[in-house]
Amino acid sequence: MTAPARFEVWGDPISHSRSPAIHTAAYARLGLPWTYGRRRVDEESFGDELAGLADDVLGLSLTMPLKTRAHEIAVRRDAAATATGAVNTLRRSDDGWDGFNTDVGGLARALREFGAEGAQLARIVGAGATATSALAALADLGVARVEVSARRPEAAAALHPLAERLGIDLDVTTLDAAARPVDLTVSTLPGDAPLPPDTAGRLAEHGGRLFDVVYGTWPTVLGAAWLERGAPAVPGTTMLLHQAVLQIRIFATGDPTRALPDEDAVVAVMRSALVGG
Length: 277
Fold this sequence. Notes:
By secondary structure, the chain is α/β, with parallel strands linked by helices. The protein is 40% helix and 21% strand. The protein has helices at residues 19-30, 46-51, 67-73, 79-84, 103-113, 129-141, 159-166, 197-205, 221-228, 237-253, 263-276; strands at 5-11, 34-40, 57-62, 76-77, 89-93, 96-100, 121-125, 145-150, 169-174, 184-187, 209-212, 233-234. The model has no long low-confidence stretch (mean pLDDT 94).
């Protein structure tokens, strides 16, 4: 019989997180005596909060701004975490914490659900930590060329070696200079990021499908620009869903590739909890 255990999602801000609802629904469907809560934790307090955790907290989901810090403290990391330098999932082990990045797999699964497979040229808007996961997810879909558009192009410097390892032809531009028609746009900007309407409109004009990783604020400025043109655009709720499925695989088995028992039914109750939230 599985022992009771606790899991939490950490970040700042965190009150908007829907992770507790979907994890709780999954645990109930799986018959696991687990609970999942949320805690507001910033970069400065991360180390102390981690050191003070009770032994029955066996795993953590990490959101902004903690993914780099989680990568630093992990004693082992999976391939996605190693490639991106970001960890969004920690699982307690005998000698510390094992780190995983389920954003990559979750985004790739969400993009396939969105009908984006087959895209050859994509644009990533933003150059923060999530952009590295987006780049790896696009490689998983077989995208050959990616343009990164950011306010500060220098912030995208770390993406060049990753793109080279992934076999992606990468260009970096400012938001104002982005003009190339693309099949798919992935926005990694925060939901409250200011963006001039004319810039959003230009990105939308030849931006193909829009997948916006934000789910708490919809439509974003970019999302509104796409919707005004009647172009396909969705928020990041399906990414949240699919990355959570991979997290629960990790919490249950330590292996993100090992499917859960009756996983289709688990995903269905998680999706219902997400919509209901």
